[in-house]
Amino acid sequence: GNIRNTEKLSYDKQHQYEIMVTAFDCGQKHATEDVLVRVNVKPVCKPGWQDWDKRIEYKPGSGSIPLFPSIHLETCDGPVSSIHTTIELQTNYIGKGCDRETYSEKSLQKLCGASSGAIDLLPSPSTTTNWTAGLVMDNNDIIFKFDGKQGAKIPDGIVPKNLTDQFTITLWMKHGPSPGLRAEKETILCNSDKTEMNRHHYALYVHNCRLVFLLRKDFDQADTFRPAEFHWKLDQICDKEWHYYIVNVEFPVVTLYMDGTTYEPYLVTNDWPIHPSHIAMQLTVGACWQGGEVTKPRFAQYFHGSLASLTIRPGKIESQKVISCLQACKEGLDINSLESLGQGIKYHFNPSQSVLVMEGDDIENINQALRKVSYINSRQFPTAGVRRLKVSSKVQCFGEDVCINIPDIDAYVMVFQANEPKITITGMDHFARPAAQFESERGVILLPDIRIVSTVTKMEHPVDLKEHDRADKPVIVEEMLHNLDFCDVLVMGAELDPEQECLELDHVELQGKHLDATNSTAGYSIYGVDSMFNYEQVLRQIRYRNWDTAATFDRKFRVKCSELNGRYMSNEFNLEVNILHSSNSNFMDHVNHMIVQPQFLQSVHQPEGSVSAVHNSVVPSVATIVIIICVSILIFVITLGVYRIRTAHQHSSADHDGSKDNEMDWDDSALTITVNPMEKYEKPHQIEEESEEEDIEDEEEDTTSAESDESEEEEEEEEEEEVIVQKGDKQNATRQAQLEWD
């Protein structure tokens, strides 16, 4: 007999079926034994990659992690002759096409060893670089977006008028197809007449997905045609992706580098030189200034797209090595242990290492090679988010072009957010020095003991802890090392007067470091990607000089540092400097020993808790000295007043004592107790007067009082009544005199 199924079997629903078979004869008597029949359902073979995870997690600082550590290819026993696999890391939506360092262009050029003197035309808005304040900006990556309605004027003096025959223009650009059939020019950079005329001296613009550089030389002895317009036609100009462009000018030769690859112009047109004139020029970004041939000067030829890191370097061009460094990605695909790939595997990376192509004849070798493909991000603080992965494969069989179809792999790498560092600046925040030291040739060092320390706070997540117990997890505070990209020493209050004061730094201190510095009346700026230690060494050498200190008593400064172009900022460290003139120079000896360096709380892992002592520096300021002097004068005046009052009171008491000399023998407190009760009104006043007299009497009066007590004891019983009468008369006389004195 036959066993048939009535519906389709599915391996996913049930792998095996068991059927009991029993035989019956014509008398319906069944067989003595039944037979068990097992039906195994085989899975339908689907060619494709097996055992891979859709989500790959990446923690900053992990180095290189494998993407598919257990992957293998199922071919369903097909006769495979070769396999071609492409792994693509899609990062065009991250920053400028991939995760690159977000330092300023000047800092990156210094890091890559580029020639100095680059001028940033699209800097972050600040008090000194305010021409970009009105532009739409993405703060994280310093990207400026132009919507065809905006332009920026570069102030006079930022870029020299004469760029010489050698100069370099660098920029990041993201641009799409131009709107309209006959699109207008879209200006990236333009130097044109400010008024009267509309001559363009040099410009970089996009026109119909072509990049054009215009350079009109000034008239000289040779009045001849010269190369003036250089055209490049590239698909990348309008693909809405980020690309890095460098225009190297060695007149009459102009070379374009895009993403590190060299491109020669496909068209060069000549033009007459420009005749010299007295008309001033206006340099603009995002549009071109039309100063003539219109009723009112205005912007024209607006740019549509995004720009970043636009710089111009007069007098020098860049080398291929520097150009490759400037546009290098910090993330990409990698292969662990290239030696173990085997001879039968061919592979190829694109320049940015975002695409890897592998080809081989043996399936197992391809499996092993793909397991070694990894993702790496060398940034200490990478951009968090998703990186998409796509793996596409083509399989060829013997005698056939394509025998089986391999579905693509769509996965992604999740890059976690790095722990944010806390940058802390510490040091002596207040000191005083004699005026002579500020007036000396070397001046006074401002930050002799400055320290820059960075810490990160981490929270442990033990696996065995429950959710409600995680509130009591130990907190780890660790010190970490990373680079800085600028530190500013700012002058607080009025700017420095260049006629009498300045900040100084010997440039020999910058040698051997990736650092540069600029000085102005607003402060001193040190920039470049370098270690915190090198920044400390340079900051400790900055000096303040003041060769006319007569009208200056103090100066205040503020120090702040940055990592990743302001993404992580330090605390604002304030410093007050007092200038001691000759009148209070002696005070110097008393205050300098009080200067104590503020303590920095060193971060350690102490789950049980820790106690840290904090020592604050206390340094008298000029205001404190003035307060002390005022209080001293006030105390002196009060003391003098009290002394004069006591002296006057003693004169009053002396007059009163003269009237008492004749009755000293009768001056006894015991007698006042037994006097006539009719004198209640007078006795309280008498007691007060006698108590006041006792407070101010000297030793002589005490002796006289003692003798008076003895004589009064001998004659008390005999002359009691007489004493009362005489004492009453004496009191009236004394009260009258006392009232007149008061």
UniProtKB/TrEMBL annotation:
Keywords, alphabetical: Calcium, Cell adhesion, Cell projection, Glycoprotein, Membrane, Repeat, Signal, Transmembrane, Transmembrane helix
Statement: the UniProt record of this protein carries the keyword Acetylation: no
GO BP annotation list: cell adhesion; positive regulation of synapse assembly; positive regulation of synaptic transmission
Localisation: Cell projection, Dendrite; Endomembrane system
Biased composition (Acidic residues): 689-723
Domain of life, source organism: Eukaryota
Residue stretches making up the Calsyntenin C-terminal domain: 339-682
Ranges of compositional bias, category Polar residues: 733-742
Annotated InterPro entries: CLSTN_C, ConA-like_dom_sf
The keyword Glycoprotein is assigned to this record: yes
Record's compositionally biased regions (Basic and acidic residues): 679-688
Membrane-spanning segments: 622-643
Main location: other
Membrane topology value: Single-pass type I membrane protein
Alphabetized Gene3D superfamilies for the sequence: 2.60.120.200
Region of interest: Disordered: 675-742
Gene Ontology CC: cell surface; dendrite; endomembrane system; postsynaptic membrane
Name of the protein in its database record: CSTN2 protein
